[in-house]
Amino acid sequence: MTASTVVKEASPPAAAGPLRVRRARRRGRIAALLFVFPALLLLGALVVYPVLFSVGRSFFDASGTRFVGGENYAEMFRDPATLKAIRNTTIWVVVAPALLTGLGLILAVLVEKVRWATAFKLLLFMPMAVSFLAAGIIFRLAYDQDPDKGVLNAAVVSVHDAFTGTSTYPTARARDGQGLTEGADGSYRTTAAVRPGQVVTLGLVGVLPGDLPRDAEPARAAAARAAASDEVRGVVYLDFTPGGGGKPGTVDAGESGLPEMRVEAVRDGRAVASATTAADGSFRFTGLGDGSYTVRLPASNFAQPYQGVSWLGPTLVTPAIIGAYLWIWTGFAMVLIGAGLAALPRDALEAARMDGANEWQIFRRITVPLLAPVLTVVFVTLVINVMKVFDLVYIIAPGPVQQDATVLATQMWLVSFGGGNNQGLGSALGVLLLLLVIPAMVFNVRRFRRSQR
Questions:
Q1: pLDDT tier, 320 (very low <50, low <70, confident <90, very high otherwise)
Q2: Which of 261, 280, 302 is the last residue of a domain?
Q3: Could you read off the pLDDT of 11-47 as tens digits, one per residue?
Q4: pLDDT score of 2
Q5: Which of 130, 324, 341, 385 is most deeply packed, by most CB within 10 A?
Q6: How many CB atoms neighbour CB 309 within 10 A?
Q7: Sheet holding 282-285, edge to edge
């Protein structure tokens, strides 16, 4: 027996090697399935089964016992509330992702030039740590119409009053039958004609003594002054005696004048003179010609204070909620775009600067085109997120304008559980929402796979 024969007899069969490999692969697949099985079980229970159940439920009536075919899908496009939800969802999809992507890009570029860039990014990203429930409550308070509660209206009212001023006596009014008649515009004028040389007393009520200006003085002395032959004197006073007593229409002791009240002398329907009352409520018109006049207190004296903007009214409720959404997600867009910006080739930017390009040209012709893949991913991700928005709309929009702010997600909940109790129609809305989200999800997945290659 030769040595080669011994080696051949000692070596294993040739087929043993591939068999061992196949067994190892089979064991690997089994181990992988065992590890993946819990995730697949959860995915099936929490995603696949609800989707299939909703699709099936959408073909039944509200009770779930009678098959109605596509009636629920037809009802969606006949229901005005659902059409409004589709319109609002379209506004969200068009406006919010575009604004967020633009803001994120601008902030990411600007942050690179800030010394405390990390702290600035942290500050902008911090709202992401706030739940939508908490953010909704915050902005519900911030948008409150009452300037004493809503911080936005407090700022708006402060700016408005700084430029246009405000009425000191919004609650003041004239006593009936005391010589003053209210005009259609809210002004007051004397019933009887007034001639030069006369003294006019204009008594008002409806002002609390505690609301009088601090510099207000008693009006009795001013009412006792005589008028020259070419002037009209008068006094505007609070026709109320603290502690009781006094006679209506008469300036009694202790009754206060109303300062800073605008008064006009009117002739032939036109104001020929005007004055502002002093601390004791006195005023006078000098240089008046012969004839009769009417003394008028313009409506601006009694204008109600400016209450600000109705942020949560039917007109502005959707833009207001989008503003809250921007506050939460701007940091997310900025951080993602900033990461893409940090990966840009700096030699291309430096070469452009050496060729004489300014910063705007570099941003428009180099930075944005190179960031296009990142911007697309951010935009599509936000589109998917916007289509599912529910918490902010449901919490921020008050009950009376809930239908004006509704989107598909909130409409689906309202129809199914919020009083409609029609889970067939609600399931159809859910299927519609799924069909709208799927193309964006597929596009995003393909972008990720293409970028990995």
A1: very high
A2: 302
A3: 555 556 677 878 878 888 888 888 888 888 888 888 8
A4: 52
A5: 324
A6: 18
A7: 173-174, 199-205, 232-238, 282-285
Q: Give the pLDDT confidence score for residue 215 in this predicted structure.
A: 86
Residue at 168 is within a domain? no
* Residue 369, CA distances (Å) to 60, 361, 365 in order: 50, 12, 6
Instruction: Give buried/exposed letters for 103-127 (b at 16+ CB in 10 A, else e).
Output: bbbebbbebeeeeeeeeebeebeeb
Extract the tokens encoding 343: 């990966």
Give residue 442's identity as a one-letter amino acid code: V
Q: What is the DSSP string of 105-123?
A: HHHHHHHTT-TTHHHHHHH
* Prediction pTM value: 0.74
**Total domains present in the chain:** 2
Q: Are residues 331 and 416 in the same domain?
A: yes
Shared domain for 296 and 317, answered yes or no, is no
Q: Are 62 and 425 in contact (CB under 8 A)?
A: yes
Q: Are 140 and 185 in a shared domain? A: no
Write out the two tokens for 331.
């940091």
Residue at token pair 């589109």? 383
**Mean pLDDT, rounded, of the chain:** 86
- What is 7-55 written as a DSSP string? HHHHSPPTTHHHHHHHHHHHHHHHHHHHHHHHHHHHHIIIIIHHHHHHH
Pairing of strands 294-297, 188-190: antiparallel
Range of the domain at 436: 71-155+311-452
- 297 and 316 part of one domain: no
Which one of 284, 302, 320 terminates a domain?
A: 302
Q: Tokens for 394? A: 């449901």
199-205 vs 232-238, strand pairing mode: parallel
- 40, 46, 72, 50: which is closest to 59 by C-alpha? 72
Q: How far apart are CA 120 and CA 146, in angstroms?
A: 32
| 204 φψ region: left (φ > 0), alpha (ψ -120 to 50), beta (else) | beta
344 and 441 part of one domain: yes
The dihedrals phi and psi of 264, each to the nearest 5 degrees, come to -130, 145
Closest CA to 332 of 369, 384, 368, 367: 384
Pair 171, 212: CB distance under 8 Å: no
- Candidates 45, 74, 46, 47; CA nearest to 58 is 74
CA-wise closest residue to 341 among 174, 138, 110, 38: 110
Radius of gyration of the chain (CA): 38
Cβ atoms of 326 and 103 closer than 8 Å = yes
* Cα end-to-end span (Å), the chain: 58
